[in-house]
Amino acid sequence: MEQYTNFAKVYDLFMDNVPYNKWVQQIKDILQAENIYDGLVCDLGCGTGTITESLANSGYDMIGIDNSYDMLDVATEKKFESGHDILYLCQDMREFELYGTVKAIVSRCDSLNYIQSLKDLKHVFALVNNYLDPNGLFIFDMNTVYKYQNILSDNTFAEVRDAASFIWDNSYDSEKRINEYDLNLFIKLEGNTYKRFEERHVQRAFTFEEIVSAVESSKMVLESYVDADNLKAVSECTERILFVAREKGK
């Protein structure tokens, strides 16, 4: 089953509890501390373009990359409504290409957890480094092993809205650190009928040490890391870590 096909139609509906404004402000604070107030910025794994649009609204020249045509269709609709000159590219982040370098690359909402091997993660980070300006920044977050083991593992989540509902079943393999979740969507059609759709998503839990090794192998330098939820020091109960890495040579 493909990921983010039918889910794209209702993705924003169910993500209205995600603190996008806080995340965008975190990104802007990091960029502006480096006197980056404009210029090219790439949103890697941009989804429906919520963060991309917000950064464009703040004066950045945005490029959005995602491997889902359906998600990018929604992002493109937002672009037409806002009038922002955003370049959207449908590419796998493991093979993404840009036309030149950018001041920063951002990747939020655990997009990088969809990478399923350390080898591929290192390759993605090498591509990031390749497309960053000298001393450019890579701002990204990733879910922790703790989150998969203690929050998501073998749990079922459900939510009911007027326009759509979902049932989200998780299955976590602690040895492989692979989390599979089956998503059953019920989307309202005309005439008050609902159609069921199914998707399967697979994410990988990387250890902190693996993430650091991926940064180092790419020749970037890890500048900082904090708990993404409160910007405090990372603890054993941290669910998502926000990292900042810097380009230091190709």
From TrEMBL:
Alphabetically ordered keywords of this record: Methyltransferase, Transferase
Plastid in keyword set: no
Gene3D superfamilies for the chain: S-adenosyl-L-methionine-dependent methyltransferases, Vaccinia Virus protein VP39
Matches recorded under InterPro entries: Methyltransf_25, SAM-dependent_MTases_sf
Methyltransferase domain: residues covered: 41-136
BP GO terms, sorted: methylation
Keyword DNA repair: no
PANTHER family named in the record: TRANS-ACONITATE 2-METHYLTRANSFERASE-RELATED
The name this protein goes by in its record: Methyltransferase domain protein
Species in which this protein is naturally found: Lachnoanaerobaculum saburreum F0468
